[in-house]
Design goal:
With 436 residues, this protein is of the alpha/beta class. It folds into 3 domains: 122 residues, 3-Layer(aba) Sandwich (Rossmann fold), CATH 3.40.50; 236 residues, tm_1862 like domain (pyruvate-formate lyase- activating enzyme); 56 residues, Nucleic acid-binding proteins (OB fold (Dihydrolipoamide Acetyltransferase, E2P)). 35% of the residues lie in helices and 22% in strands. It is built from 14 helices and 19 strands. Strands 2-1-3-4-5-6 form a 6-stranded parallel sheet, sandwiched between helices. A 5-stranded mixed β-barrel has the order 15-16-17-19-18. The protein has a 3-stranded parallel sheet with strand order 7-10-11, sandwiched between helices. A hairpin with a 2-residue loop joins β15 and β16. α9 runs parallel beside α10, α10 runs parallel beside α12 and α13 runs parallel beside α14. The protein is globular. It starts with a strand and ends with a strand. The mean pLDDT is 96. The structure holds iron/sulfur cluster. The site of iron/sulfur cluster has 9 residues, from α7. The site of iron/sulfur cluster (SF4) has 9 residues, from α7.
């Protein structure tokens, strides 16, 4: 039997799909090259903005053709849109045979057997089930041999007024420390050298089980063979001095952090219920720069949140000028059902959002140009992750992609390299030496 998984959205959804592949492999399924040859098609959905919702319907429209030539083929929908819409989606998409969400991925085997027996297996739960942690008993099937995502918590206890995550992934549930360390040990035995800890608000890990996040960083870094540690997504409010100190103290922690700002205006940050103001965000950046030498930043920005004025938007641009992010993931505000901001007065016109987005991207383009020039002729440490046509690809500790010419045998190695041609989002390098 063959499966095909189409994944939308964030790294957590991609790591969930890696876990779904592990569940299916343990059931004897193999990956199909394309959806046309699959016996089971799964859409792992996102609903963070309007666009991903639309994509799901268009993909379902395409995939339903499989039933014409293979009536026994099954189509399943999981992930955040499934959790948010539930029965409404099942009603709108009669071609769907099974539905579940991030709450009950571990129930996939029984949902498949129900659907194979001819029942519609729609299992959208109000709350995460007691036995949710059974999920961690299943392996993950990953494409990257040397770098692995490890989900360390689910859900979020924040209430950002534009965000659907607390509704689609529930309240914060930290995964047990021993369960995480066991997975990290297995990954390292399998050849992984870089571990990327994932959570909607990963810096809040442990708050619900009485452990500080920095404890997790130290324990993961202590696992023999762990070369690099990264984590995503931190929340400025939970980025404590103890975490910053640990980041500076632990050699495996890479000098890069994704710290979503969302907006620069204190008034808008208040309406978003982000829990910090512009100066506090800048102080956290300064604190991280003091504890972690050479740290670089990326961030998320929402343009055109309800009632955003030109002055508010100028505050966002001011933070970009002052922090000089290596990467900005910027989005036009997209009203989401079931979120407080959805019914807020003062929704910003689409053309105003677009005009502001253009200005933001122009500013960021000039900042990235300067940053790219600052990497020229520098020496960087790369972990080489992939090989193609005589070229190896890897990332610096500051999370920039780079390529260099070399033997395939260098795959998985940590090397020192000189930057010979630095561009906005990629760098050509020359190998200096193999470090380890
Ligand atoms: S912290 Fe992130 S995931 Fe949580 S509610 Fe805010 S934006 Fe959503």
């Amino acid at each position: 039997m063959k499966y095909y998984i189409k994944t939308f959205g964030c790294q957590m959804n991609f790591n969930d799909s890696e876990r779904l592949r592990g569940i299916l492999r343990s059931m004897g399924y193999e990956p199909a090259q394309s959806w046309e040859e699959a016996d089971l098609i799964l859409l792992n959905t996102c609903t963070i903005r309007e666009k991903p919702d639309q994509k799901v319907y268009s993909h379902l429209g395409e995939y339903k053709k499989i039933k014409e030539k293979k009536p026994t083929a099954l189509i399943g929908v999981c992930g955040c849109l499934a959790q948010r819409m539930g029965e409404e989606l099942a009603h709108k998409a009669p071609v769907v045979d099974l539905m579940f969400s991030s709450y009950n991925m571990h129930q996939l085997p029984e949902l498949i057997s129900q659907a194979q027996a001819g029942y519609r297996a729609i299992a959208i739960l109000e709350e995460p089930p007691e036995d949710e942690d059974k999920l961690w008993d299943f392996p993950t099937v990953r494409d990257n041999q040397f770098c692995a995502y490890v989900t360390v918590m689910k859900g979020c206890d924040k209430n950002c007024t534009y965000c659907v995550v607390p509704k689609t992934r529930g309240r914060q549930r930290s995964r047990g420390l021993e369960s995480i360390l066991e997975e990290v040990r297995e990954l390292v035995q399998g050849g992984v050298r870089e571990v990327h800890l994932l959570g909607q608000n990963v810096t809040a890990w442990g708050q619900d089980i009485g452990l500080p996040f920095e404890e997790l960083l130290y324990r993961v870094a202590e696992v023999p063979g762990v070369e690099r540690v990264r984590f995503t997504t931190g929340h400025p409010k939970d980025m404590t001095e103890r975490i910053a100190r640990a980041m500076g103290d632990i050699p495996q922690i890479c000098e890069h952090i994704h710290l979503p700002l969302q907006a620069g205006s204190d008034r808008i940050l208040g309406l978003m219920d982000r829990g910090y103001v512009k100066e506090e965000y800048l102080e956290k950046v300064q604190m991280l720069r003091e504890y972690v030498k050479g740290i670089t930043f990326s961030t998320d920005i929402i343009v055109g949140f309800p009632t955003e004025t030109e002055e508010d938007f100028e505050e966002t641009l001011d933070v970009l000028r002052r922090v000089r992010f290596e990467q900005v993931f910027s989005f036009k505000y997209s009203p989401r059902p079931d979120t407080p901001a959805y019914s807020m007065e003062g929704q910003v016109k689409e053309e105003v959002k677009s005009e502001r987005m253009t200005r933001l991207l122009e500013l960021q383009k000039s900042i990235i140009g300067d940053i790219a020039r600052s990497y020229q002729n520098t020496e960087q440490e790369l972990l080489l992750e992939s090989y193609e046509g005589g070229k190896l690809m890897g990332r610096t500790r500051t999370n920039r992609w780079a390529s260099l010419r070399g033997e395939e045998s260098l795959l998985g190695k940590v090397v020192r390299a000189k930057v010979t041609d630095s561009r906005a989002f990629s760098m050509e390098c020359e190998l200096l030496e193999v470090v380890r």
